[in-house]
Design brief:
With 309 residues, the protein is mostly helical. The protein is built from 13 helices and no strands. It has one domain. Helices cover 80% and strands 0% of the residues.
């Protein structure tokens, strides 16, 4: 199907827009650290069920060791470390500045994919990525003016927040490239039997679950499990976000990077801050300025260029 990768990336962005609402509400109740642990656990369970129902087994046979290595590293770097950095950046400098800095992720992804995967982007594709990021940045800068108050003027906090947001962007970029390398490493005699996105997503999630829960075990924080799981509303919100985010969203993101250039997929996926605008109008009754609407139009134009390039 023509544009299948781009459509998968756009679907990912829509799913992650809903995820941001679920996870914002859940993190206010149980904290971002525990939200990250619980959402990954929920997602891994959902992916295991999806694999069992669709294929009758948890993983397909004959996956080479190199694919497991790439996908495990992708899960640890992208889903555990990268997302943890981004969530903590929200706390330190707020979502507005965090997302602004995080918008460099598609550029990092495109560069890494060019270096390590040999993917080359034409002039039109590069123009589309630039316009998409410009539109998203325009909207992100405008959102929540004055957020964080004086904390944004604290030099140490600002430096820490910037490093965390850049770390989150780098984590996603490296995770995408490693995931695509892991899927491409599975091939038959004709070179066409690449690993499907669903088992690749499940392997990444297994790595994320193992790393973040093992860290919790050694850090001695697992004694708080009962307390966190008593909040049934937070668990329902985390489950909803897990379905739209690390389950369906991450699955669709790997479909996107498998079927189109990794940089293009990352640029389309990065439109979440724009796509969330109508959701905050509906659910939070927020007012949106003409500037935000204009930024959304610019972003839509950039995405359209990526579809027609």
């Amino acid at each position: 199907m023509h544009f299948a990768g781009e459509l998968a990336a756009l679907t990912t962005a829509f799913l992650w827009s809903f995820t941001s609402l679920f996870f914002t509400s859940a993190s206010r109740r149980i904290g971002s650290y525990w939200l990250n642990k619980i959402r990954i656990l929920f997602a891994a369970t959902l992916l295991a069920l999806a694999m069992l129902i669709s294929t009758g087994r948890f993983l397909p046979p004959n996956i080479p060791a190199i694919s497991y290595i790439y996908l495990f590293l992708s899960g640890i770097i992208g889903l555990t470390i990268g997302d943890s950095f981004l969530f903590q950046a929200y706390v330190v400098i707020g979502p507005r500045l965090s997302l602004l800095i995080y918008s460099v992720s598609p550029i990092m992804t495109a560069i890494l994919a060019w270096i390590f995967l040999g993917e080359k982007l034409g002039t039109v594709a590069i123009l589309g990525i630039v316009i998409t990021i410009a539109g998203m940045t325009w909207v992100t800068v405008e959102r929540a003016p004055g957020a964080n108050g004086s904390s944004t003027h604290d030099a140490k906090k600002m430096r820490l927040g910037i490093m965390l947001a850049v770390g989150g962007a780098a984590g996603q970029a490296i995770g995408f490239v490693l995931a695509k390398a892991g899927m491409l490493a599975v091939s038959g005699p004709d070179g066409g039997n690449h690993l499907d996105a669903l088992p690749a997503t499940f392997i990444r999630m297994i790595a994320a679950v193992a790393s973040i829960w093992l860290y919790g075990l050694f850090a001695g924080d697992l004694r708080k499990i009962r307390e966190k799981f008593r909040d049934s509303r937070a668990l329902l919100l985390a489950l909803g976000g897990s379905i739209t985010g690390p389950f369906l969203g991450v699955w669709m993101s790997l479909v996107a990077v498998k079927l189109t250039e990794t940089g293009i997929a990352a640029a389309i996926i990065s439109t979440v801050p724009v796509l969330v605008i109508p959701l905050v109008i509906i659910f939070y009754k927020e007012k949106v300025s003409p500037r935000a609407i204009f930024g959304a139009i610019i972003t839509a134009g950039g995405v359209a260029i990526l579809f027609i390039q």
